Amino acid sequence: MVLGTGLHPRPPLAAQLKKHFPLVAEDSHSPLLFVPQTGETIFEIHERARDFLRLFIRYLDEKHPDVRTVLLVSHAATIIALGRALSGNIQKDIRAGTCSLSQFVRNAGKKEQDELQGWDCVLNGSVDHLSGGEEVGILS
Questions:
Q1: ∠ CA(42), CA(46), CA(50), 5° rounding?
Q2: I need a surface site. Which of 3, 29, 34, 123 has the fewest CB within 10 A?
Q3: 111 and 61 in contact (C-beta within 8 Å)?
Q4: CA distance 12 to 135
């Protein structure tokens, strides 16, 4: 929260990050969506995840059609909402353990009218890459 306001902070823009991380290009990104500064309900998290993925997939399809792999890093609740949106199943069990990996693959040649159709979950919260296994796991 931003001290004294009771509001959640906004992430810095690329120009602000450049001051601390010189290799960041000033035009490297612009946010697609922001979390409401007053917080959000579980329903709103799921809505934001769907809205973000539609915008992001459309952006990649139009501007970077050669991109085949994307890494999304976030907190557990958001990872669960993103996974459910990609799977098309709001009640799908999505694992979101510490440093877990999930993989969603777009069906070959399928670019549906709705960007969120045609995705298969082929890896769900795997921690096989961690020598000590799962530390903290959340299954919803």
A1: 165
A2: 3
A3: yes
A4: 30
Place of tokens 């994307």: 70
* Residue at 6: amino acid letter: G
Task: Write out pLDDT tens, residues 18-43.
Answer: 888 888 776 666 777 888 888 889 99
- What is d(CA 57, CA 103) in angstroms, rounded to the nearest whole number? 15
Determine the average pLDDT of the residues in 72-78.
88
Strands 101-106, 119-126: parallel, antiparallel or unpaired by DSSP? antiparallel
Are 40 and 72 within 8 A, CB to CB? no
Q: Which residues pair with 81 in a beta bridge?
A: none
**And the tokens for 130?**
């961690």
* Dist. CA 13–CA 28, nearest whole Å: 9
> How many other CB atoms are there within 10 angstroms of residue 20's CB atom?
8
pLDDT at 5 exceeding the cut of 50: yes
